Amino acid sequence: MTEHTPETESASIALAALEGSGAGxxxxxxxxTAWWSPRMYELFGLKPEDGLPTIQxxxxxxxxxxxxxxxxxxxxxxxxxxPETLRYRAVHPSGEVRQHLTWGQRQPxxxxxxxxxxxMVMDVTDHVDxxxxxxxxxxxxxxxxxxxxxxxxxKMGTGLTYVSPASRxxxxxxxxxxxxxxxxxxxxxxxxxxxxxxLGGRIARGETVSNEGYEYRGIHKDGHQVWLExxxxxxxxxxxxxxxxxxxxxxxTARKEAEAELLAARIEAEAASRxxxxxxxxxxxxxxxxxxxxxxxxxxxxxxxxxxEGDRVYLDLIRSAGETLLTVxxxxxxxxxxxxxxxxxxxxxxxVAALGExxxxxxxxxxxxxxxxxVCDVAEDVRLTGDVTRLRQVLLNLLSNxxxxxxxxxxxxSLATEEEDGATVLVASVADTGCGLDPAQIDQMFDRFxxxxxxxxxxxxxxxxxxxxxxxxxxxxxxxxxxxSDGATGSTFWFRVPLQRVEAxxxxxxxxxxxxxxxxxxxxxxxDNAANRTLISxxxxxxxxxxxxxxxxxxxxxxxxxxxxxxILMDMQMPVLDGPSAARAIRGAGDQTPIxxxxxxxxxxxxxxxxxxxxxxxxxxxxxxxxxxxxLGEYARPAHEKAAAA
Length: 646
Fold this sequence. Notes:
Blueprint: E1 2-3, H1 9-20, E2 24-30, E3 33-36, H2 38-43, H3 55-60, H4 67-78, E4 84-91, E5 97-106, E6 117-123, H5 130-146, E7 150-155, E8 159-163, H6 167-171, H7 175-178, H8 189-205, E9 214-219, E10 225-230, E11 233-236, E12 242-251, H9 253-304, H10 309-340, E13 348-351, H11 352-369, E14 373-378, E15 383-386, H12 388-405, E16 410-420, E17 423-432, H13 454-460, H14 466-477, E18 480-485, E19 491-501, E20 521-526, H15 530-541, E21 545-550, H16 553-562, E22 567-570, H17 579-588, E23 595-599, H18 604-612, E24 617-620, H19 625-635, H20 639-645
Parallel strand pairs: 1-3, 14-16, 20-21, 20-22, 22-23, 23-24
Antiparallel strand pairs: 2-3, 2-6, 4-5, 5-6, 7-8, 7-12, 9-10, 10-12, 11-12, 13-15, 15-19, 16-17, 17-19, 18-19
């Protein structure tokens, strides 16, 4: 600062009077221009011949806890005419701490229009109640001594100046062993720079207190590392310099170990889940591959005629057993997806009448084989939006159970709609004339792996998952499902699900399955299983389809580059080059021929893998001839378009 000396005689007289009272007198114009009386130097333990301290040096003379208070008091004086009084602690260069009381006020403008701050300072150390200070010190010591967290104070350039007794439990050191040490000496080297950067950011932002702390590894006296948590309070002087740190350090080693154990358990659980998914995927694939031949050839043989009545019975038993096994596989996969929360809905417009008639058509042959009347009543053919595939799955579950457990009489599907809270509620019921259910057992029927009793599984088969899956699907759709029975004269299973109405012209695809091809097609089949190649060839033999067949993905890529096809049917798991890799290679060559996966891989992530590789559609094995026909009709692209594009 630039020293300015009072000019008038009256000022000198006033100064002498103040000096005689033991008070120091000061005048400040700005941060660069000031004046101190000789007593001011004595009050701060300085020598007049050394000159006025700079503003930075001055703030270092304040106790770290009081420097910010002094800076704020000075700012208020500069911006207000109100007097300001402040008690603070001054720290002499010798380290002695003195209690000061200062008073100041901004003066009216002088002849040159300048407004000085004028004030006085008195040393009141001998007048401060030592009992009050001692009580405050005792309170601090009591809290610090009885907390399990380690309380520390660290002065910049000096090291630790206070450490609470908890240091023994946290780091193994006694407080006296830690006094004077630098905290960084007890921090893992790899964490030191991170902590310095964190504190540097807080200093730059002027954050003396923050809600955000940090975790780091401390070095115990015996050499092992412990996890610690800190959120220090920074003491910053008026010059913006950090002079001291006050911190409460907590041992979080147990928490970190628990988190590590939890993470390891989660990783282990995720690995187990992946292993389960892989097992289910492999199980599904290995079962679906032979089922493709069992069900496909049994349908072909049955449709060909020429069988004796006895042979037809045997053939029906083979097909029924295959369909039962397929139902078990599908139930297990569906339930696994529901348990994992991986099942998502795919809403689309559909016709209520088409939904009911399609579901009953699939079970009509089975019902008629038992001599049952299977009836579908639709109150009104309303068009709705919903996941028609999952709705059909629930209906088929209820209908197949009704047909399975009804020996004589009928099974009736009733579909109607009701308006409720701005939504159209689809109401479905399946009533049968079977043996009925014990009313006390109805609720548990919707639990997984549950049937009415053990004899049901032995007599009729099944996993006991169908109704549990149906309930979970209804939950996802926001609906409800239940059943009623008197235990003697049949049962009625029902569900209610809120959906949205749509215009009739928006409904597509549901009623179009099974339409004949409108033109000849040239199709490439990539399939490594000889039985499946024979089956697909037989299924397409009666259609106007020219079929080329290859046994692996590499052959498929060569064939696609040499010939213009309307459609490529691609298995996923093949030797030499798998289906997705072959599809990417075909797309990489600029060939946009539609590719449909014809595969036993049916999990959602596997279907997504097909689409990511550039395939347009997916037909699951065992092959439903209607699904294959629908794929041919929907995806086949005239070969001449490909030739023209080339």
